[in-house]
Structures are given as structure tokens and as C-alpha cells.
Write a structure and sequence with these properties.
With 193 residues, this protein is of the alpha/beta class. Helices cover 30% and strands 20% of the residues.
């Protein structure tokens, strides 16, 4: 039996212990949890890629407090790699946006240690990016690597990708990133509840 696809497959790797049931790393008191959910948004396609910008727009429209901390350039396929240099170059091109000259893992590490130094974000969302991050591909994904970097620091994370199992076609994939981002917002809402 053949299934008809309306949208390309949206692959989602869920790495969230349960947002309401756990205390984020570095949270100091119950009063810290008032207000909107604080989200560090990263990816592997770069801070200005369409997927991260669509996700930013959808998450902020839903009322979340979102800050982009993502690679300066495309880091697809970086996996969980992190640079071994003692310094990293960072640009701050606009409010709520940090561009790190490194991998998604470097971006998350910088975000947690510098941008969110006062208090860890409640959640890291990595993506949405082009292509699937499923099965054996997940281990090579920088998008998944960004989520893993957060989990290693005790911060809940979700890695989100948009695309079918074949090579992504640019415009249809960008168009599918909107409903993928809407699904992610609904998922976060449900996990909070």
C-alpha cells in the first residue's frame, strides 16, 4: 500500500526528559522559572539559514524567549565534533543573535557559558535544518550534535530536521519548514503541560 505524502518527512529526534518535571541546569530558585520558556536556538546550517529563522519566528510568535546561538557558517555533517582551540570567534550581528565560528556543539557551549551564564535556558532547540537526521545519518548530523552538547550539560534539547529521505529540494523543503516549526511549537507546548 503506497502512502501519499502531503509534506516531506519531518524527522524529529526528541531528547527531552520532560520540561515540566526537571529543573534545568544552573537554575537557582523557583522564581527563575516564571515568565516565558527560555530557549537557546541553534542549528548546523548557520545562524542565517532559512530553517533557523523560520523556527525563531514561530517560537517567538508562540511567546517563547528565544536567542539564536548558532554557527557562523554551514556546519552540516559536523556531528558532535567540537573545536579544541582555547578561543573561538563570535559575532553578535543583531539583538538575540550570536554567530559562533565553530560547530553546533561549540555554539551551544558558548551559549551556555556566556550568553546564558546567569541561568541555563529551559530548552535547546537545534534546527530545523535541511534533510533527514534519522538512523545512521543521525550520528553525523551537526543538528543532532547541537542537541547532544546541551544534553551533556544537563539542558533538555530537541533536534529538528525537515526533508525526505532523498536529497532535499530547496524551495519545497523551505516551505515544509513552516509546518515543521509549528509542530515543534505544539510539541513544546504539550511537553510543558
Amino acid at each position: 500500500m503506497r502512502r501519499k505524502r502531503v509534506l516531506p518527512l519531518a524527522a524529529l529526534l526528541l531528547c527531552v526528559p520532560a520540561l515540566g518535571a526537571t529543573t534545568p541546569a544552573a537554575a537557582s530558585s523557583p522564581s527563575d522559572t516564571s515568565g516565558p520558556l527560555r530557549i537557546l536556538l541553534t542549528n548546523d546550517d548557520g545562524y542565517n539559514a532559512p530553517g533557523i529563522r523560520i523556527m525563531f519566528d514561530r517560537l517567538t510568535a508562540a511567546g517563547y524567549d528565544v536567542t539564536i546561538v548558532a554557527p557562523l557558517t554551514n556546519q552540516s555533517g559536523a556531528g558532535t565534533r567540537m573545536m579544541s582551540a582555547s578561543t573561538v570567534t563570535v559575532k553578535h550581528p543583531e539583538p538575540r543573535v550570536w554567530a559562533v565560528d565553530g560547530t553546533p556543539g561549540d555554539s551551544v557551549a558558548f551559549g551556555l557559558s556566556e550568553v546564558f551564564a546567569d541561568r541555563a535556558p529551559d530548552l535547546v532547540v537545534s534546527g530545523t535544518n535541511f534533510g533527514p537526521n534519522v538512523a545512521g545519518l543521525a550520528t553525523h548530523s551537526g543538528t543532532v550534535g547541537g542537541a547532544i552538547a546541551a544534553l551533556e550539560q544537563g539542558v533538555p534539547a530537541i533536534a529538528v530536521s525537515t526533508g525526505g529521505l532523498s536529497a532535499p529540494v530547496y524551495q519545497p523543503t523551505v516551505n515544509a519548514m513552516k509546518p515543521t516549526s509549528d509542530f515543534t511549537v505544539q510539541l513544546i507546548d504539550r511537553l510543558q503541560d
